[in-house]
Amino acid sequence: MQNLGNLGGGWAEAQYVSADGAVVAGYSYHAANAYHSAFRWTEGDGMLDLGTLEGGTWSMARALSADGSVVVGDSGSSTGARAFIYRSQMLDLANTQTAMVQTAADLAAAGAQQLGMIGGLANTELGGAGNELVPTASSMGAMPARMPAVLRIGALYLRYRGTAGRGLTWKLALAGGGGTVDVRRSDALPDTEAGHGLADLQSRAMLAEVGWDMATAAGRMTPYLRLMRAQTTRGGYTEADDIDFPVTYAEQALDLTTATLGLAGKYRLNDLSTLRYDFGIEVDLARAAGQIIGTSDAGDFAIDTPAVANEARLIGSVGLTRRVGATGALTADLGVAQSPHGGRPAATLRLGYEMRF
Fold this sequence. Notes:
By secondary structure, the chain is mainly β. The protein folds into two domains: 12-86; 94-355, Autotransporter beta-domain (Lipocalin, Beta Barrel). The chain contains one helix and 22 strands. The chain has one helix at 93-122; strands at 12-17, 23-29, 36-42, 46-49, 59-64, 71-75, 82-86, 90-92, 132-139, 149-161, 167-185, 195-216, 219-234, 237-238, 248-249, 252-268, 273-289, 292-295, 301-303, 312-324, 328-337, 346-355. The radius of gyration is 29 Å and the shape is rod-shaped. The chain starts with 11 loop residues before the first strand and ends with a strand. Mean pLDDT is 88; it is low at 127-142.
């Protein structure tokens, strides 16, 4: 029989033993038997007081993992009795799981955002009048605040237009790229831990468009049909092991195919300035997005990507190009589009400078 001691009070109770008998968990009273705390005991460390959650005065062990590394129980807190999980510090179990799911929701939102971004870049086009083979480059756009990233993508498109800008016109475009995202788990909730991990994010898109250019008194009007396929893949990763309960996230792939029927055109305001417009309806032909799946010693979870509320949605943009010198041009574009996931329409503003050689 091994005397485990106590935490200063007159009573201690051993309740759980690891598979090899080397670790014991239970509870013990403190001095004057005023309150009790959960403990974990090993021969090397003796009886370790596991403490309480924030604002609590007592704790009780309820289970011990087979290897003795994790204790689960309940504790008083500023909001009442709550479950805890302990490896090197006492964490609120529900808050820890909530923080993990919030990170998964951030991943889902970021994936959906990048899917739209890469498709938008494939559709970006400089304001040329004739046939063009043009490379373009861009950053991937803003990521959620807890996901700082270094991402780079580029695009290449080929545009054909008939003589004098009339008749058949078509466009082929490819876009792709990616980089590394530092995904951060917040510790804003009480008794949680901040985690982080590096995930590889790659996106690509293909686009084909056919239209018919029609000359107007001061410009051009083009009805068109556009097909686009975009794919985004986030590699699986595991959070750094400098925390008690790192999460391993499985790889996620998103795939979207759309068709857009629209009307685009240009209207020459004067010798230097041209107004551009593009309005249409975009329809999902196919959309696939795997769940965000995470595994951890604090619990496993799987959440769905944001639900699609608008499989068909209105899109529109208006832009202004003003020539600067013989080869340059200033551009400003305002775009508005219904979100696939509902809510308010998304608005984008892009300012740029073009130079032709």
